[in-house]
Give the backbone structure.
Amino acid sequence: MVNTEVDVVIVGAGIVGAALAVRLAKSGLRLAVVEPVPPAAPADTWDSRVYAISPGSARLLSEAGVWQQIDPHRLGPVHAMDVRGDHGARLVLDAYEAGVAELAWIVESGRIQHALWQSLQQQDNLYLLTGVSGVTLAWTGERSRLELSDGSVVSAGLVVAADGRPSWVRQQARLEARREDYHQSGVVANFACEHSHRQIARQWFRADGILAWLPLPDDVVSMVWSTDPVHAAELAGLSPDQLAARVADAGGRVLGDMHLVTPPAVFPLSILRVPSLVAPGLALIGDAAHGVHPLSGQGVNLGLRDVAALASILLARGDAGCGELALLRRYERARRGDILAMQGVTDGLHRLFRTRNPLVAALRNAGMDVLQRIEPLKSVLIRQALS
Ligand SMILES: Cc1cc2nc3c(=O)[nH]c(=O)nc-3n(C[C@H](O)[C@H](O)[C@H](O)COP(=O)(O)OP(=O)(O)OC[C@H]3O[C@@H](n4cnc5c(N)ncnc54)[C@H](O)[C@@H]3O)c2cc1C
């Protein structure tokens, strides 16, 4: 049990909250991090939660000394993205053509979390409060008072909500959050493949949803199939061999036979819009601040860009207090455009490919073909993927 005063308390140490803590750790700011469930040490088996980490996010983790701690044999570089429409359209983004080494890295969530956690444990100006969660949180004047389930009390100039979509902190601050259910679920599972995936990420916009195969090392792919909940439940209920055959067939058997190596898990999908990302003494980051459809694999990347923006504003604050609203508004302004754009694109694509109208179906496939042929438009897409 501790009773302490800090400059910044970060509530939630998922990838985003932990990355902010590591980024701020050498700044001289006094920090506290609250996390009820610290990550387990990674196992040899493949994690069911896998992320496409953009080169920009990898750079941020690298500058914080974390990326280097992830076993390189568990990093899957993406050399190309091959996206297929439901009426024969095709869009290919290629790292070589774009003049970059890779478009993204496919990495297990647990590996990133563990590397971040190890770094957090080595910081000395940081209180790591684990196995506890918030009980009460109130702001008085320029400070907040956070009481934890073990009786600890943390007083801070700035509270950072990094506690995921339901965000207890956001609720205590009574900040509005609008969640719109997509009436879809994401089925995730990993498969070993007969043929090499050649470091190509593949995505199919299908009548029954969006299927993605992300290339992990050892010719394993991580699948995300966003589909209606009944279909998702049916897929999750298949035997391992039946599911592998169904997934291989859905992808036209381009990687030959598949073999299930991580059992399926199912996540409900929704979009979360949060109109205000800040209040006096409070900033929201990561999924506490926004939720997007996983079709672009950008949730963690958006969150890590929040981290970069908030850290640089806090580090350049001069005489201002960490919780001053004028300072925090700069963070909000810096992030608003990126978040709205990502929500607009993923929501728009989801709706565009959900409609059964044959005219819309023809138009969306024609649109992909146009993108494929116009190099400047492809460059815009690639620049977005790399950030
Ligand atoms: C099916 C699916 C596939 C996805 N694929 C991708 C992908 O390929 N690429 C990508 O970038 N994103 C992807 N995402 C999105 C990604 O999972 C999220 O954007 C990401 O996990 C958000 O990280 P976070 O740290 O903000 O929140 P979280 O990961 O939710 O972490 C929140 C942390 O806060 C802690 N916490 C919770 N409550 C409290 C409390 N009261 N007090 C203190 N701590 C608390 C939790 O224990 C947790 O550690 C996918 C999502 C889904 C559903």
Q: What stands out?
A: The chain has a mean pLDDT of 92. Residues 11-17, 34-37, 51-52, 133-134, 162-164, 168, 186, 188, 224, 267, 286-287, 294, 297-301, 303 surround flavin-adenine dinucleotide (CB under 6 Å). The first strand starts at residue 3 and ends at 11.
